[in-house]
Amino acid sequence: MFTVINECQSNPCLNGGVCIDSIDMYYCQCRFNYAGINCEYEDYECASTPCMNEGTCVDGIQTFFCYCQESFTGRFCERDVNDCEGVDCGAGVCIDGFGSYTCACSDRVAGTHCDRSKLTTISQYNSTKSDFIVSLK
Ligand SMILES: [Ca+2]
Ligand SMILES: [Ca+2]
């Protein structure tokens, strides 16, 4: 004589696992991606801090997602966004930065986009300066 006890009655299997009753014990058939006697484990894929460049890791089922800082992209935020894309530096050369760009201008031009002639700038400067000197006299 033995008493039949359904060990599954307490619903021991977590995360949607299916309980299989046995003699004096039970088994949990875990759903995909879950493990442990009671299907209590699901891997924390963010544990290895896979997101680079201060990206934020969000754990998923057997995967993770990286939310990147504005100037980075890619699955691991490993790639720097090319901030020079679509930028016209005129006679200068665009230098990509982190969330910004710089136009390196040639000797004859100036301005954020190398769109001002330095010669104009200097003559403007000189006229302003002479006006200033005149006003002092
Ligand atoms: Ca996970
Ligand atoms: Ca960049």
Structure description:
By secondary structure, this protein is α+β, with helices and mostly antiparallel strands. The chain folds into three domains: 1-43, Laminin; 45-80, Laminin (Ribbon), CATH 2.10.25.10; 82-120, Laminin (Ribbon). It is 14% helix and 29% strand. It is rod-shaped, with a radius of gyration of 33 Å. The mean pLDDT is 86. Bound molecules: calcium ion (2 copies). Residues 71, 80-83, 96-98 line the site of one calcium ion. One calcium ion binds next to loops.
Give the tags:
Laminin; 137 residues; binds calcium ion; two-stranded antiparallel ribbon; alpha+beta
Number of beta-strand segments: 12
Largest sheet at a glance? 2 strands, antiparallel
The gross shape turns out to be: rod-shaped
CATH class of the largest domain: Mainly Beta
Round the Cα radius of gyration to an integer and report it. Answer: 33 Å
> Topology as H/E string?
EEEEEEEEEEEEH
Strand order of the largest sheet: 1-2
Instruction: Examine the secondary-structure arrangement and name the CATH architecture of the largest domain.
Output: Ribbon
What is the terminal separation in angstroms? 121 Å
Mean pLDDT: 86
GO molecular function, one term: calcium ion binding
Disulfide bonds: 30-39, 68-77, 84-94, 105-114
Organism: Capitella teleta (Polychaete worm)
Protein name: EGF-like domain-containing protein
